Amino acid sequence: QVQLVESGGGxxxxxxxxxxxxxxxxxxxxxxxxxxxxxxxxxxxxxxxxLSQYGIPQYADSVKGRFTVSRDNAxxxxxxxxxxxxxxxxxxxxxxxxxxxxxxxxxGTQVTVSS
Length: 115
Fold this sequence. Notes:
- The protein is built from no helices and eleven strands.
- It is mostly beta strands.
């Protein structure tokens, strides 16, 4: 089992920034595709951004130009840099780590964007 721990969530005003961090326990971190997903009340969990083991990113249309994903394989960490935050970004954000055989999830971290 891979353990994933998210941190960096909090409350911020519209237009503000937050940096979310996902730390993995896996010695094989470098071969996992990584992703950030979010879920708000009454809505299904949605993909925010992914970053493959080869460093290829994908972003939801709603966050393109505002969010950036990166990974540090030596530190086994995965980061979501969020700028220009909007109230609709409010959600619990989850880290995901995946290979074809397995998929793992973190516990989630709350992001709240409000005045």
